[in-house]
Write the structure tokens for this entry.
Amino acid sequence: MLGLAQKLDEGWTWKLEGYYKTFDDLVSSDPQVNYINGASGKAHGVELLVKKDSPTLWSGWLSVTYSQSRRRVDATGNTLPLDFDQPVIASGVLNYKPSADWSYGARWSYHTGNPYTPYEASSEKIPPKNEVYKPNPGEVNSRRLPAYHRLDLRVDRHMVFNTWKVDGYVELINAYNRKNVSGYEYTYFSSEPTRKRVYQLPFLPFIGVEMAF
């Protein structure tokens, strides 16, 4: 790992980091003994972080990462993405605090969809009833889910009553109701499997109060 960072005027900082890693003895499937330590891999990437620190008014940060992670099955020589390989990851946070009583925040995140293994057509049925077809997986991690992105918003109100400190907040999770796909469900009642999307959290509002004395 190698990094470079610099502090600038008025609370600004930036940092650039790069890394390279290798992996040995990764677990892979084997027709004789089910699993063996028969795979290797490598991962490399670079990340840029820009940050603004301030106790009042505007503060926040922006991070962008580009990376690749691959594994190689020693027996076949096939190279494929690792399960959580996400080439592009970006996130940003923006805070605004006009006074000691109020603060506003926003967080946006984005990343490339995870790789997944698709299922293809099959002509073989599963006994004894032969009501469904046998799942026929395609090439491992040969496709990707749609890209993920989400915006969260929050407003905080800070109050003091004698010896009590009260913090109330309103938070909007997934403010623009992005339908992020977490995976797929397959059914096998025909030779061509039916695929259904499984979604992550929809738009969710929260209201909360914290009290201390």
Summary: Residues 113-213 form one domain. The two ends are 46 Å apart (CA to CA). The CA atoms of residues 3 and 27 lie 31 Å apart.
